[in-house]
Amino acid sequence: MAYETFIPTVWNANLMRELEGKYVLAKHTYRAFEGQVTEQGDSVRFFGVGRPTIHQTTVPAGKNILHRDLPAPEEIENTTITMPIQQIRYYNYTVGDIDKLQMKWDGRVISAYQQETADGLASEVDKYLGQTVFREAPVFSNSFAAASTKIITVTAGDSVASGDTKKQNVLELLDDIVEKARENNISDKTKLYVAVSPKIEKIMRQRLISISTDNVVLIEGKEYLKYYNLYIEWSNNLYSTTNYELLTVRTDRAVGFAHPHTHVEPYRPEKGFADAIKGFILFDAMILRPKEIFTAKVTV
Q1: CA–CA distance from 195 to each of 120, 200, 205, 295 (Å)?
Q2: Facing residues of 89 across strands?
Q3: CATH 3.30.2320, domain 139-254+291-299, yes or no
């Protein structure tokens, strides 16, 4: 065997670190879960904390309540949501002599394989969120949406509210979604993450540049367009058809995401003279707070 120096735990740790830096849609998700997962079908549990009752009183009556007659502490009803882990993504490829690769150019060759693997896996995870999970959220609609399809035509220019070619300024659409978020008691201090296609992001960028030059921020080394409490990023993994593209706005608590298990094995295929690496990840995601995620069908 030519892979004695290959340590799976080190590969897994490095792969997990690479994945964290490459996620787009999976990055801003809720991950407070517990559960041991070693195979498909195992479950994890997400925990949510309930809101306490806020009581009301006045002075001087309140003095007695605060000092002598305070009601018994309530038991806040917390929520637990169980999610089975059903998604598997795997890989299997030859790499030549693993031991030699790990020594060649100070390990940069084997590191390149690892980075490419992480790129592919991260894209598959994001694709699952953008094309399956996000589509389970209710579709936002307003007066600019087509009655039958709910598709909204957006523009970087002024809105056109009448006639057969209704168009809404793309930032005004975001304003409408923020209004809906406020109705759902989402504070303006809560960050809202917007995911759009590169084409829609370009329109947003054009409009933002026309009204302000201070519209780009860095968060953990990643660049976002910023519009009030909205942080805008692009992704090629959102659902789309020939008629529309999905736009999503969400808090980082709206979607639960778990990637609890990573596995890798080096081996020598029976038919061949090269080493190979095979591995898989187990993961899944679901909407935990449906009032904190909004989707819109948009076109240009």
Answers
A1: 19, 9, 13, 10
A2: 281
A3: yes
Per domain, the residue ranges of the chain are 8-48+78-134+255-285, 139-254+291-299
Ramachandran bin of 150, using left for φ above 0, alpha for ψ from -120 to 50, beta for the remaining angles = left
Backbone angles phi and psi of 40, in degrees to 5: -60, 135
What residues are paired with 210 via a beta bridge?
A: none
pLDDT tens, residue by residue, 271-291: 777 788 899 999 999 999 999
pLDDT tens string 218-265: 766 678 899 999 999 999 999 999 999 999 999 999 999 998 888 888
CA quadruple 14, 18, 19, 21: dihedral positive or negative?
positive
Pick the CATH number of 8-48+78-134+255-285 from 3.10.20, 1.10.1660, 3.30.2400, 3.30.450: 3.30.2400
CA angle, 58 then 61 then 65, to 5°: 100
Q: Say what the pTM is.
A: 0.84
